[in-house]
Queue: 4 jobs
Job 1
Amino acid sequence: MSATGDNACAEPVKIVIFGATGDLTKRKLIPALMRMMDCELIAQECRIIGVARNTSREEWIQGLHAYVRDEIRDNAVLLQRWPQLERMLHFVEGDLSDDQTYMRLYRALDAIEDIRNVMFYLAIPPAWYVSVATGLKAVGLHRETDGYRRIVIEKPFGMDIESARLLNQQLWEVFDESQIYRIDHYLGKESVQNLLVYRFANSILEPLWNRNYIDHIQISAAESIGIEYRANYYEQAGALKDMIQSHLMQVMTLVAMEPPVEFVADAIRDEKVKVLRAIRHFHPDDISRQTVAAQYAAGELGGEKVPAYVSEPGVSPDSTTETFAAVRFYVDNWRWQGVPFILWTGKRLKKRVSEIVIRFRKPPFNLFDVNAEPPTANALVFRLHPDEGIVLRMNAKKPGLTTDMKRMVMRAPYAEDGHDVADAYEVLLHDVMVGDATLFSRADEVEESWAIVDPIIEAWKARVSIDRYRAGSWDVPGMDQLFEGCVGGWHRPT
Ligand code: BG6
């Protein structure tokens, strides 16, 4: 989806990928670019210039090909596109701390004629963001004298409010805000964008979308995977910074925002920032009641034994990093006053499910058999993953000579078998190419969200121990208490 409604082939661009041999490039960027070729969203003249050290163009290409061939399921279309992709690939060898690398990049770009636009994709650890921006400036590659220059930055964007502010300032010394695209891949998910359409293209939801009818809202991302090979990063980040400050708070802003005046990037981002500004800040004394942190212990998933977080390679045996985090937020404005927004996420949970649950208030009075089960509160669930779509839970009469009730579940899948669902990176790369920043975080959004979670980060720093949950379960201590007073309590995904 593009706010401009522009699903056409984007103008040719030279795509420079820093971190060309990294995981993100082979798992996400290259497959997304190939699928875009298949849908004719990317011009044949485009060129992809990989930058990495200690390898050659041939080795790089072999590595990418082996990944597409051996690791990607349903890869027939991608393999068909391979020869076309290979013709587009260029390579610049070099260290990111070496000025000569940027000089070589300059020459390589200059040698590709007739394409004026350049996108720089930073698929590298955050510690390198500023060095790369400065390196590009030193050779003048940041200047938009001819065509556009856009820089795409992955999360984490800073690790707290101070580092995020500093990073913004350092980037602004090189690029204008309009050239910076801060990626949050959750915003590229079709189902997340669909939320905006459900909200603003249907008139039945809006009258109910407020404190008068909604009891509370849960936004969750449960994962069954562990931390994989990322101990270094995860030990620093933990679930709060990894998922809540970025992905889930972004989704929360879309759920809570007012209708924008226009469907354009800044109008939408203005409304999102207003939500963030209305979020009640945490007092240090409230943090233990408003949050949950826990870490997975050893357990079983899909019939296999899995180790505890502290036994994962690279994790310190006495680590207290949280692999599960939940926060109860309040949005202090007229629409949402008093409605808890509970955001939670965790690794090594029973299932991979990501959803938004809008829990309505209970019916005010039970008109039916008082001896039977009372009606349950309605829930509207936006499934982000898997089985994207919406589910509405209502009460209905059990068939027969009775007024007993049963729960009726109405499901509306978003796309049959998920076939039409584009990957987030396809959507976002295309948006960068057409210059649509709607689905990217603006500097003020990032700073506001850090300012909100900073007191929690501070409070959690002092932690000397942490609660545990069994891997492969939903047994997270403290979650039922966190939902105290919420109709229906904690909704464990089914
Ligand atoms: C990333 C986090 O940003 O998002 C990972 O760093 C997490 O820890 C991932 O696994 C989840 O993304 P998705 O699209 O699989 O829900």
Job 2
Amino acid sequence: MIAIGCDHAAVNLKNAVKKHLEEKHVSFEDFGTDGTSCDYPDIAEKVCSAVCSGSAERGILLCGTGIGMSIAANKMKGIRAAVCNDGFSAEYTRKHNNANVLCMGERVIGTGLALELVDIFLETEFEGGRHQRRVDKITALENKSLGGI
Ligand code: RB5
């Protein structure tokens, strides 16, 4: 199952992604918003909780830029969220970073490209090997207390 969510700035893109997933027979759960104005960290929390719990295999978070969603998502333990605006990034954030949440901005990229990035993100496997060691170091960073600003 893929967990998907957006804020009010990306409802059109989310609807397009949902239709695309339906056509590909990929199961998903929509964590909002239905169009109501909302705060993107609240949606990021819901989608990422589904990923962290294992109920969702991966997540897709959409906002105006994709950036706010990614910042919020990456605060959650176990989440590796990547903003992607091109196919190379979508491919390599899976191969090298084992990213589990794709973030995109409706105000940044067109729908056609976004759907291509969804396919790449969902179909590309993590390469492991030396990249596993690096991802493990990201996890270790999560577990260190770095203090506040
Ligand atoms: C909402 O206006 C906008 O700030 C939000 O969608 C997102 O782009 C934040 O990063």
Job 3
Amino acid sequence: MKIAIGSDHAGYLLKEKIKEFLISRSYQVIDFGTTSAESTDYPIFAREVALAVQRGEAQQGILICGTGIGMCITANKFKGVYAALCTDEYMARVSRQHNNANILCLGSRVLGEALAISIVDAWLNADFEGGRHERRVDLIKKMEEDMC
Ligand code: RB5
């Protein structure tokens, strides 16, 4: 499975750690940057990861900034992208099971490395449950169609 990943300067170090974890678990990682801790702008990287997921070049995406908020706001502007900001494993698991989130957003200034990796692990190991949740996700998709 291919995972698109991106961060701004605040998320850079955590992105590198998460990338190592993903590779160790045999995921294919497409890294859209940033490539250093030099100050940059999170929407640039959120856009690249969101487009990769929207186009099906990656099945899922992970975005990291200081809080995860800016990444989440930006990614959710893209049709077909459902980004979830998660601060624990429960939110991560349920964002897949109930919301079918295809991008996970994390805050490097909110989470320690071990918790962040545990959240990624929980997210990747959970699947959409469908059923009543499908009806709700379909309502979101219908709104998306009506708005665009
Ligand atoms: C950068 O200082 C910070 O604003 C950014 O990483 C992020 O937290 C935005 O949502």
Job 4
Amino acid sequence: MQSDLPLTELKGVGPALAKKLEKLGLHRVDDLLFLLPLRYEDRTQLVRLGALEAGARCLVTGEVLLAETLFRGRRNLLVRIGDGSGQLTLRFFHFSRQQQAQFQPGVHLTCFGEVRRGKAGFEMIHPEYRVVREEQGGAYDDSLTPIYPATEGVQQGRLRNLTEQALQRMRSLPPAELLPTDVTRKLGMPSLADAILYLHRPPPDADTQKLISGTHPCQQRLAFEELLAHYLSLRKLRALAATEDAVALTDGNEEVSAFIAELPFKLTRAQERVVSDISSDLSAPHPMMRLIQGDVGSGKTVVAAIACIKAIACGVQAAIMAPTEILAEQHWRSFSDWFRPLGVEPVWLSGSQRTVARREALQAISDGSAQLIVGTHALFQEGVDFHRLGLVVIDEQHRFGVHQRMALRDKGINAEGHPHQLVMTATPIPRTLAMAAYADLDTSIIDELPPGRQPVTTVAVPETRRAEVVERVRSACASGQQAYWVCPLIEESEVLDYQAAQASYGMLSKALPELRIGLVHGRMRPVEKERGMQAFKEGLIQLLVATTVIEVGVDVPNASLMIIENAERMGLSQLHQLRGRVGRGAAQSHCVLLYKAPLGRIAKERLAVLRDTNDGFVVAQRDLELRGPGELLGTKQTGLPDYRIANLARDAELMPQVQMTAEALRKDSDDRATAIVRRWLGGASRYGKV
Ligand code: ADP
Ligand code: MG
């Protein structure tokens, strides 16, 4: 916190122990203050032996009545103790001669352990115990015993000792209170020092239920400040961008109007609103940092295209990056169609490109003849040298993290400043979570689907009824529609993955000999994948068997039936994304979730959510509840930080207040804001340069 005392300053910590502690993320003495116990044990009061309950972990005392060694398959040492109100058996499987000799009748013991129901009354197996002089009546711990997260070779006793030393230091040198008092008062939160003390050494009457669920005001106090620190750091990043230069993209309005007039559809009101947000951002001499959230099928691509038209009209390069080759290629194709009339030929860049093509692409990118570049994350790798990058579009942002976003942005820096940045995500996340994840971005939401879309009807069907489902595919295709058959991606093994997809393909080819069936999976070369997708798009293939490589973005409006195998193994948001591949045309679309029975509770709920709603925000909210935010936003690389104490699944509701507090601090006491960020994130923000 305010000091950087290394752990080795503590009594009993040498280099070896310091190294082990590092595994717990502990580097400085004050880090120990933020290593919160996972749970607590109550050793503050004795439980009478007559009042024991099975399952409880408790502290008891009694006099040894008898001790005997039994051989029942394995050696057992049984020690019976009594306290007048009842009896308890202590059972040891490993013990020394010395121990055996300790347990003489008449000796008093204090024990702590879990009570179980044994053959002859209650037992404790391998309890912690101590020989005591008499009945000690009352001389026990005066706070609950914290149980810290374990790391190899560091015992609980050691952690308790170290945290005690850190707490001692804190008592004499309390940390500065950085939250405004009106906030802590309003939220009923204690001071930082009080909260830390309480959580490490809770009094006997503490509400352990609350402590264990992480909802105690003391925990909320720490979580609040941590969320605030991260939020402030992202806001600073945002503020920094506002001071950077960018080329103001003011031209191109005529080109945009002409483009919109040529589209085979009319923009929705939501699309128009977002286009105008973007136009006003682009016309400023500072880099745009805007996130577009919109459910699958809401029409984000065309909005991105409009931004690109403006950029190109203003003479700068525009680059669009997608997370998978399939999606990038699809964008490349749509953009080629859209931009050809404007005399712009998009350049393609991907990791798997052949050398010659790649060299040509790189050349065009660096000499500026490439005005529009479409690709995968290959776009921000070594050797890509933009001539005059003015706009970066990142599609399906949930697959990329803050770091990748920053990398591409930094790549475009030139004498004129930073490129404008537009990020798009189809993973609608609850508002509170978006506040935490995307505080460095301005947000626009496309909250309207193009007209005429019908919600996808979803059913869950056990695998045993696969034959019926195959019949359904037959009749859908016979009536001129197209279908997807999705096999789960087996990430651990490309071979297994391939075999699973291959097996389904074989089964379907045999069952449906009259259909033209294609196969697309992760192991194919990108050209082959693209060929398969293209054939499906053109209707040459009626049924496409695919792994989840088609999860994001793929757009084939005539496909109106989707079968998802092993749906019970997939997450809610992933299933929603997959399902978003159908329901894009005018026909009523259906999604069949094939599952292997029996379903677990969570799997059952997931499938029920999908059956009940098509609304991405509802799906996201339920997903958050069922899974937690890390996975919802695409695991580690989301840009969502690893919090030490806060847990967004639990604490997301603090976000509105965090946001208000942050904005007030930024306005009135920037020093405090800086101190809060420094306390929790160290000198520099983990996002780079704040
Ligand atoms: P997503 O937001 O999931 O990326 P897309 O941009 O792929 O969605 O758009 C989905 C489909 O909707 C595409 O076929 C696109 O051409 C079409 N589309 C986009 N906007 C409209 C609109 N305003 N009216 C009708 N169709 C539209
Ligand atoms: Mg898309």
